Every structure is written in structure tokens, then in C-alpha cells.
Amino acid sequence: MSIESIRSPFRPLLLASLLATATSAALAQDVLTKDRSGGAAAVDVAQCKEWLGTLAGPEFEGRGTGQPGFEKAADYVAAHFQSLGLVTYFQHVPWASAKVEAARTSIIFKKGNEVVLTIPADKLSGTAGQSMAEDGDAVLLVVDAPPGRERGQGGGGEVPAIAGLDQVDLAGKVAIVHVRQPKEGRPNPFAAFAVQQALADKKAKAVVFATAEAPRGGLEGRRGGGRRANPAAAAARRQPGSVTFGGDTFTAFLTAAGLSKEALATAPVATSLPLQASVAVTITESNAPAMNVWAVLPGSDPQLRHEYVVIGSHLDHLGRRGDTISPGADDDGSGTTGVMAVSKMFARNETRPARSILFVCFSGEENGLVGSAYFADNCPIPLSSIAAELQMDMIGRDEEENMEGDKGEKAENNRNTVHLVGTKKLSPELHELCMQKNATAKFDIEWDQEGMFGRSDHANFANKGVPIAFFFTGLHRDYHQPSDTPDKINYEKLLRIATWVYDIGFELATQTSRPQIDPELWAKYRQGGRNRSPEQPAAPLKPAAAGGANR
Predict the structure, then answer these.
(1) How does the average pLDDT of the chain come out, rounded?
(2) Distance CA 93, CA 289 (A)
(3) DSSP per residue, 351-369
């Protein structure tokens, strides 16, 4: 792992331990300036535990955008803002919830005119992007998945190549796909997707997966943005489904086809079956709860109060998928807890900064940064009025070896580590301010996670030319797993990061000038494939070295 760090070999690890166990009030009084120390002292670890425990608790069911748990979480955050006396809003994001109609969903196999097997909806699992009703001769495909990468090997997101499918003729057929997982090593989680990609141009009427294991989670419709939302999210609902049957139903299917499980071990890639298949999936769509929750603390200066410092997180997580709930304590219950903490610090501070502060918790981040894209495209304030956007996403853990790599990384070596992402891309002035305030926060900062830049909501502000800073403590084994639970959060670290963001935000909202965009960095940023970025950034451009004025 290549790291450029300001970690000093002479800084004892004891410092991080002492800072982690100190109270918020003591830190605020000892190290923050008097104009903001009172606000920082208004929040403690116990409050953070309460907020995050609720956000990642069973009532909110993983806060999946479009699901009832997300709406409850949005109401919870809005109530918090309102309790602080902040003017609070919901920005409703177009969102569709797709529901499978069980009575009109099934897979039927016939032999001639005789129905030999009916698989009802409650025996199916996976996702369906759209309704379908297809008939055709059944073909069994038996393919081998390459081994999945072991933990810490890196490259966990690579889609494997599936051998033997190039010459398969599936025109007008229904393909029943059985994926043989490797006998040794981890199963490859991308095998089914790789098969779908390989069969995309084979003109099959339908592709259905069959497994020896009983299906879990039921068959669900894909949820995502509506017609006016992020095009990528809307397109996801139109992607091929991954309808699956298995267990006893798989055994019954093999019997109807005149095959055995033992024969699958040596089966060829494609076998024509003496069966005809009818695949019917009926999806109904309706509007679903998806909202960005935002609130404003007005600034004290009559002129500068029309400019804003934005402090954000994403409120959503993976939600409920069948019987599985992913609570998302770190991702991003921790960042949302950070926003709740910073909002209370500002609201309870006796001195009001000159600029206004806008707090926002986005929806749909896990579905392609949908909520923040909608916010940036339909911003309730002028984009040019935003001095900076400070994003907290996964600020509650200590980085360790994980499914995406970081081999050998240990949590105990990262107790005081924070990744500061994106500050070098647009505005050196904002970067320098973050570093200046870290002289107080005293984190070990690493710059090795720029590959995460496009994976959180700040990216949609950067694409508009708004200075951004992304605060992130790294991945871990529980990332996007049901095991991402509140008991594993480093609450002292979370609160220290929130206090650091508060200090940076207060300075941004107080100083006379605001961060400018470096022209050379902006040109480089736009050339990096971000075609949606405008020619002129929303924030002021720094004058050329030879003189000149802002745009």
C-alpha cells in the first residue's frame, strides 16, 4: 500500500490514545479557539452512540432508499435539525419502487402439452428489472466460474471471463444456467453477472439461474431513480434480471429433464432439453420515499449570509433485501452521526459565523450517488454561493484488510488515521485550511485513497466546480455486510473527526475570503473524463499569475 503521510516517526502512539479517550468538552476548551469551543463542547460520545445506534438500529432496517426504513431515518434526522431550531426541508428525489406480483410470476416447464413442473414466485430469488413473458425451448448451460480472489489480494471487483460460451446458439431459447463454483477457494461473487454479459448478444428469450442451494431473499424488483433522476440509476432497472431457483426445485427440474446432479459434474457447456419453458415476471412500479434532508443555520453577516458552507453525508444504506438487513453503521451511519453532531455544535455555539451553514443528508448514494446528483442539478441555493462542501462518509472505523485489498493492513495501526480525499484536485486553499486545522485535530493523514474519490456524494459538487473535502477512515471487513454494526464503531474517533470538520467549517464560514478554484487544476479535472463539468466552475477561479480577475 503506497502511502504519502504526514505521520511523524517521533509522534508516539500514546498521543492518539490520549486524544481518543479525552472528552469532547476538554478537547474543545483546550484546543479550539474561544469563538467556537462552546459549540464543540455541546456534543459528547454518549450522544453519538445514541444517534448512530438509532440510525443503524432495527427500526430503520438498513435505511434502503425507497424503503419504509429510509423514510423513518429521514424523519429522525429532520426532527433532530428542527430540535436545534434549524429551518429544515425535504427535497424529494424521483424514485420508483418495483414490486413483483407473485400471482403473475412463475416459471413453467412443459413436455409437449403436459406441465411437468411449475415454480411459483415464492420459490424464486434474485432481482427483476422489468416485466417479461417469454416462451422457448429450454437449454441447460453448465459453466465453470473461476475462483474468487482471497481477502487482501486486491482486484476484488474484476468480472471473470466465462469459458465456452462463444459458440453457444441460444436464439429463441430459454437458457437455464448452472454455475459450477470452484472446488477450492472462495466462490466468485461476479460469476452470474459475467454469464449475463457473455450471453448479452445471444438472443436468448430469457436467462434463468439454477443452483443446488435453496434460494434466499425472494424475488424483488429493482428500485431506483425515476425518469428525471440519475440516468445511470434509472438504467439499472432495465438491466437483465438474475432470476434464480434452487434446492428441491432444482432437483425436480433435473428429474423432469431426465438428468441427475451427479451428471452435472461432467456435463458439456450446452445441453438441449426435452422441455419447453415459460418465464413470466410481472413488475408494478410506484413512487417510493426518497428525499434529501437539509437544514440551514443562517449566517450573521448581512452580505455573507447569502454564501454557504455545505456539510454532508449520505443517509441511505443497502436496506432490507429479503430477510437480510444491512444496518450500515459505518456506511454511512457514522457520517450522518457526524452531520448531526456538527449541526448541534453550530446551533449551540454562542458565536454565529458570518456565512450560513447548510447541513444535508443525501438519499440514493448506494444506487449511484443519485440523491446528491439531484441536489446538485436542482440546488435549492445557487451553486456559486457554496464556499465548500465537506463530506463525511465512513468516519467510524479503523482501516483494515478487506475484500477490496489493503493486504496486511491492521486496524490497530490505524487508530489515528484519516484519509483526506480530493482536496488536492481543485482548491489548494481548501487543502491548506484542512491541514492547518489538523494541527489542532492531530490526525495521521493519508492521501492513498484517491481511487475512492468518485464513490461518495462530494463528487457531484466537484463536478460543478465547488471546492470539496472528503473525510474517510478506510474500508474494513464489514463493508457492505450485515456485520457493519454499531458496536464496532470507534466513537471517540468519530467525534474527533466531526469536531475537526466543525472547526474547518467554522473557519470557512468566518474568513473574509473563500476558497478559489485553481485554473490549471480545473482544466486537468475536466480533461479527466468528466464531460458533464461546465467550462467555468461554480466557485471563483483564482486569477492568473500575471494578473487578471476572477471570471
Answers:
(1) 88
(2) 8
(3) SPPSSEEEEEEES-GGGTS
Cα–Cα separations (whole angstroms), residue 204 to 178, 282, 376, 397, 447: 16, 19, 40, 46, 47
Helical H segments across 269-423, by residue range: 335-348, 370-377
Query: Per-residue pLDDT for 145 more than 90?
Result: no
Closest CA to 399 of 494, 475, 489: 475
Distance CA 382, CA 384 (A): 5
Task: Give the Cα separation of 272 and 169 in Å (integer).
Answer: 11
487-528 tens-digit pLDDT: 999 999 999 999 999 999 999 999 999 999 999 999 999 988
| Conformation bin of residue 120: beta by default, left when phi > 0, alpha when psi is -120 to 50 | beta
**Sign of the four-CA dihedral 429, 392, 289, 226:** positive
Radius of gyration of the chain (CA): 26
Cα-based angle 168, 211, 161 (whole degrees, multiple of 5):
45
**Count of Cβ atoms closer than 10 Å to residue 5 Cβ:** 11
Q: How far apart are alpha carbons 12 and 10 in whole angstroms?
A: 6
Q: Please enumerate in sequence order all residues whose Cβ is within 8 A of that of 385, keeping only pairs 6 or more positions apart, or say none.
A: 306, 307, 308
CA 47/CA 64 separation, integer angstroms? 24
Give the Cα separation of 229 and 319 in Å (integer): 20
What is the set of domains in the chain, with CATH numbers?
13-93+290-527 (3.40.630.10), 98-285 (3.50.30)
Q: How many residues does the chain have?
A: 551
| SS3 state of residue 376 | helix
Spatial contact of 398 and 490, defined as CB atoms under 8 Å apart? yes
Predicted structure pTM score: 0.78
Least confident of 27-31, 442-446, 510-514: 27-31
What does the H/E/C string look like for 171-200?
Answer: CCCEEEEEEECCCCCECCCCHHHHHHHHCC
Q: Give residue 25's pLDDT.
A: 46
3-state helix/strand/coil string of 162-174: CCCCCCCCCCCCE
Sign of the C-alpha dihedral computed for residues 390, 393, 397 and 403 taken in this order: negative
Q: State yes or no: cis peptide before 301, omega within 30 of 0.
A: no
281 touches 105 (CB < 8 A): yes
Strand 417-421 with 444-446, pairing? parallel
pLDDT tens per residue, range 164-195 = 888 899 999 999 999 987 777 666 777 888 88
- Report the C-alpha gap between 363 and 342 in whole angstroms: 19
